[in-house]
Amino acid sequence: MGGILPGLMMAALLSATVIIQVLMKPEIAPRITQRVSFAERVSTSAQAIPTILIAVMIIVSLYVGIATPSETGAFGAAAAVLVALVMGRLRGGVMQKALQKTVRTTGMFMLLLVGGLFSSFVLTRLGVPQDVSNYLTGLDVEPWVIIVMINILLLIMGMFLDPLSILVIVVPIFLETVVGLGYDPIWFGVIVTIQIEIAAITPPVGLNLFVLRTVVPDLSLSDTARGALIFVLPMLLGIVLLMIFPQIALWLPSVMF
User: Fold this and answer.
1) Which of 64, 99, 203, 248 is most enclosed, with most CB atoms within 10 A?
2) Domain around 220
3) Residue 116 near residue 159 (C-beta atoms within 8 A)
4) Rounded distance, CA 46 to CA 38, Å?
């Protein structure tokens, strides 16, 4: 519930980023010159129904309690196979090709994950996160300054560690500190989630960049990174807005519980 309004806010900020880019460089989104009838628009829009149906099934399974957040990934995959089967799209070795691509993407992802977990293990054993936390909490500054410093640290960590490693390192160490400073843990959780999304598109270890590179082999990793980095700005702006207006994340939970 705490992520709904921040999610809508992030969607608006990311959409605004695309609009601004197109206004500044119209050539990246050329206008369609051919006329499209209303019937063609309806028929084309109808092609999105299966995807929407899968998304609805995933969301319903999560909020009704059928599946946990971790299990929704498997539930979504099963829903995609079911929809494709009903539509008769699993012919011609489609399933085999999908499984092959899944194995390649998963294998690449697991290698990155193992590297990230190894890095987090080494950092934890060396006591680096603990030392940083002790240093931050010992500063004689306003609490918001410490929150800013934690966000800067998360931003730097996101460039070199995978999301799971960041959670393993950050949450146990900083959560108690953040709560002790008087901040709500739900609010902090939303901010960490946005930071993890930033980490997923920041090189050199941006997992989404590697996944996209696997899905679209014609796209170079450097081009993918350059195209994604512009979206870091609206995400950082979203974090700033959450720091100024924490009720964006806290209002819905306070109304429901």
Assistant:
1) 248
2) 93-256
3) no
4) 12
* Domain presence at residue 50: no
Alpha helix (H) ranges present in the chain?
4-24, 38-46, 49-64, 72-86, 94-126, 128-137, 143-158, 163-180, 185-199, 207-215, 221-229, 232-244, 247-256
Tally of CB atoms within 10 A around 79: 19
pLDDT in tens, 26-53: 888 888 778 888 888 888 888 888 888 8
In the chain, the largest separation of any two C-alpha atoms, in whole Å, equals 66
Between 182 and 172, the more confident residue is: 182
Number of domains composing the chain: 1
Q: Is residue 20 part of a domain?
A: no
> Which one-letter amino acid corresponds to residue 234?
P
**Quick check: 232 pLDDT over 90?**
yes
Tell me the residue type at 217.
P
